[in-house]
Amino acid sequence: EIGKYLSKLAGEPVKFEKASIGLPYVLVLDGVESENFDLEGEVGFRVEEVRIGLGLKGGRIIRLYGCTLFLVQAADEQWSPGVFARLGDLPLGNVGDITRLTSGFRDGVRLIIKDGAIKWKSSAGAGAFASKIDFEMSRIKMPRQVMYNYRLMVHNVLGVDGARGRDVEREWLASDGDGYIEIARSEDVDLKGRVGFWDDDGSVQKVED
C-alpha cells in the first residue's frame, strides 16, 4: 500500500488524498502530507502533487508541486520532521551545502520542485524562511566525467542573520571532486555584501564569462 510505504520512508504516519497513473506512465499522488499537518507551521510537511516517472535515458524523474515544510528544532537540538532533519542546519551554512545534502541520491534522480516553501524554527527561537522556491537538480554526462547541474530560485527569503532578499537565483555545477562551481547568480541589492547563506564562503569556484 502506498500510504504504508510513504510512512516508512518518512519515519512517521503520512497520508495522501488520491493516487493515479498519468501519461506517460507516471505515478501521481495528490495531497501528500504528514500526520496532523496544519498551515500554522507547528511542524510537518505537505506536497500538493507528487509525480514520479522514468526518464528517457533511465533514472527517475521526481516532480514536487506546492511543497510546504515546517522544520522545528527540539531542546535536544534534533530537527523534526526527522526525514528532513538534514535540512535543519542549512540556513547556518552556505548555498553550496545543498550539493552535499543531495549527493547520496542524485546519481539516478532528476529532481524538480515548483512553488515550495520552508520555515525553520530553532530551539532558541531563531527563525528563517524561504518561499516560492523553484529548484532543479539533474545529471549531466560530460566527455570525461559526470557532473550535476543545480538551479535554485527563491522569491522571498529571510536568513538567520536577518538578511532579506527577493528573486534570488543561483546556478552551479558539481561533481564528485568539486562541490560548487558557480555559473550564474542574480544581483540582489538586499543581500549584496551580507555574510550569510547566499554569500561565497571562500571555497566557491566560478566559471568566468
Describe it.
- 7% of the residues lie in helices and 49% in strands.
- It contains two helices and twelve strands.
- Strands 1, 2, 3, 4, 5, 6, 7, 8, 9, 10, 11 and 12 form a twelve-stranded mixed beta sheet that branches.
- It starts with a helix and ends with a strand.
- 20% of the residues are buried.
Gist of the model:
This protein is mainly beta and 209 residues long. The protein has helices spanning 2-10, 97-102; strands at residues 14-15, 18-22, 26-34, 44-54, 60-73, 79-80, 109-121, 127-141, 146-158, 164-174, 181-185, 205-206. The chain is 7% helix and 49% strand.
The number of helical elements comes to: 2
Rg over CA atoms, rounded to whole Å, is 18 Å
* Biggest pleated sheet: 12 strands, mixed
Mean pLDDT over all positions: 87
Report the helical percentage: under 10%
Order of helices and strands: HEEEEEEHEEEEEE
Q: Number of DSSP strands?
A: 12
Structural class: mainly beta
Low-confidence stretches: none
Q: Span between N and C termini?
A: 51 Å
Shape: globular
| % residues in beta strands | over 45%
Keywords:
209 residues; mainly beta; 12-stranded mixed sheet; 49% strand
Task: Break the fold down into its secondary structure elements and pairings.
Layout: H1 2-10, E1 14-15, E2 18-22, E3 26-34, E4 44-54, E5 60-73, E6 79-80, H2 97-102, E7 109-121, E8 127-141, E9 146-158, E10 164-174, E11 181-185, E12 205-206
Parallel strand pairs: 5-7, 11-12
Antiparallel strand pairs: 1-3, 2-3, 3-4, 4-5, 5-6, 7-8, 8-9, 9-10, 10-11
